[in-house]
Design a protein that fits this description.
alpha+beta; Nuclear Transport Factor 2, Chain: A; 7 helices; 19% strand
């Protein structure tokens, strides 16, 4: 990737402020292993996802330290340009739908994907103020599974509270790592949104 990926720090902001994470769940039952990144073919440049997280932290802090960050329209443009494209919302929505996916048409899935994007964007826009250039983030090396999946674990240190444990699940799409789920202190975003959309999803079974 040639562009920075200021997504992970932004997701931290969104998930740290979601009080509805009350259903701990671990979708990562099979082990991930630390080691080398997936083997690349000649000419490929696949960046390590942990390096992307480091870049994300730096990029987002620089933006929040600028005068532009005080303008909500500019902030929204920043989110749509730099953050939203790097989240695999379609794959995330498929995981959210789970067994209901078989009953959903392409139009149904597109509608839910749009709702998921809107929810993420609104939450990020509301909560960017809780993160600043002085927020300390510890990022661990990436752990891999099957050469196309990875987890990057981080700890976020905010004042007057215990560190938050964030585990970001990446998947490799066309030589680009994208986020497909994230856990905060053991609670999964996929599970949160599954509960959020549960009543709507049930309608598809008739």
């Amino acid at each position: 990737m040639t562009k920075l990926l200021p997504v992970v720090s932004g997701l931290i902001l969104s998930l740290l402020t979601v009080s509805a994470f009350s259903n701990p769940y671990n979708p990562y039952q099979r082990p991930y292993y630390r080691g080398a990144a997936p083997t690349q073919q000649p000419g490929q440049q696949v960046q390590d996802p942990a390096a992307l997280v480091h870049q994300a932290e730096t990029s987002l802090k620089q933006f929040l330290a600028s005068q532009q960050a005080r303008n909500q329209k500019v902030m929204l443009t920043f989110l749509h340009k730099e953050i939203i494209p790097h989240i695999a919302f379609r794959q995330m929505m498929q995981k959210v739908a789970g067994p209901y996916l078989r009953y959903m048409s392409t139009d149904n899935l597109n509608q839910f994907e749009s709702q998921l994007k809107e929810s993420f964007t609104s939450s990020l826009l509301r909560n960017l103020g809780s993160f600043n250039r002085n927020t300390r983030v510890h990022i661990e090396p990436a752990r891999y599974r099957f050469n196309r999946e990875a987890i990057v674990s981080t700890k976020v240190y905010l004042p007057n509270t215990y560190p938050a444990q964030l585990d970001f699940r990446f998947a490799l799409f066309n030589d680009q790592w994208k986020i497909v789920d994230v856990q905060i202190n053991g609670a999964s975003a996929v599970v949160f949104y599954r509960n959020h959309f549960r009543s709507q999803l049930r309608d598809y079974r008739g």
